[in-house]
Amino acid sequence: MELSYVAESWPIRGKFAISRGEKTEAQVIVATVRDGAHQGRGECVPYSRYGESLESVQDQIASVKSEVENGFGQEKLQKLLPAGAARNALDCALWDLEAKRSGKTIWELVGIQTPQLKPTAYTISLDTPEKMAESAAEAAKAFSLLKIKIGTDDGGRLAAVRNAAPQARLIVDANEGWNESNLEANVRLCESIGVELIEQPVPAEHSNILKNVRTSILLCADESAHTSDDIQKVAETYGAVNVKLDKAGGLTEALKMIEKATEARLAIMVGCHVATSLSMAPATVLAQFADHVDLDGPLLLERDRDPSITYHEGAILPTTSALWG
């Protein structure tokens, strides 16, 4: 067995902005595990919100290099590394390698006989009301579900998006940007324009204030839920959970999250960071179990890797073995 890893930078089309900042490139790390005849790959996105950087994630991968090369599998990996980007890259690489070695597809390995294409949200980055409206009008030509990134003072932005895309279904993502003083007003604003889901409205450590909110809109935990151990607590304040490979630390734990979320009767959203198709490919497995899918990361890039994931009429198609799995 041989493990290698490399950091890559992929330019974003324009810029990508959320309530806590903006960026112009997607920085990813690709881990590759080879056994001579076969190789498996996994991509991750270090996320500063969780104290990660390109350097720290590469250091984590390096710390288990000898164990990986001695030939252990996904279950041991869960014990050697914490949930996060580094474990995600390695876990997905091991799944890919297992598929290549066995001659089976990922769908056969996880027991999904006929994977389906899934409608995905398209993200409208935080900007001026005018620019967000322009982006929404264009995106709504192909995507029936739009995800709107917002901050704290967003009445004008949301109204502009709704006017520009009157038929679109809307998700709002505050990225922890609201607080106790503006929470109620922002929720009512979302109700007035027909938003169906609000993602992580308040900081994770302040989620308890959501217990006082009465709304028909589905509230979805993102930063509040990383692994299956968080599901029970999340179910006390949220009606849905966003499962992301980089948070969970790979496909192995993400599947456990979905199992526990289903038991807790939480709706399931599957999300991503801005990244290439290699990040989206294993997430299409999770998408098979999701009520809401947000896997548009490669569409926000200037270019994608080849082969890439396929999108068709606002939907993401299941991965094929040429890309991953």
From TrEMBL:
Gene3D superfamilies reported in the protein's UniProt record: Enolase-like C-terminal domain, Enolase-like, N-terminal domain
Is the keyword Nucleotide-binding in the record? no
> What does UniProt list as catalytic?
K149 (proton acceptor), K244 (proton acceptor)
Q: Which UniProt keywords apply?
A: Isomerase, Magnesium, Metal-binding
List residues binding Mg(2+). Answer: D173, E199, D222
**Co-factor requirement:** Mg(2+)
Q: Name one GO molecular function term.
A: racemase and epimerase activity, acting on amino acids and derivatives
The EC number of this protein is 5.1.1.-
For this protein, the record's CDD domains field holds: L-Ala-DL-Glu_epimerase
- Residues forming the Mandelate racemase/muconate lactonizing enzyme C-terminal domain are 129-216
Family annotation (Pfam families):
MR_MLE_C, MR_MLE_N
Keyword Electron transport appears in the UniProt entry: no
The record, for SUPFAM superfamilies, names: Enolase C-terminal domain-like, Enolase N-terminal domain-like
Free-text cofactor note: Binds 1 Mg(2+) ion per subunit.
Q: Which family does it belong to?
A: Belongs to the mandelate racemase/muconate lactonizing enzyme family.
| NCBIfam families for this protein | racemase_DgcA
Q: Kindly provide the name given to this protein in its UniProt entry.
A: Dipeptide epimerase
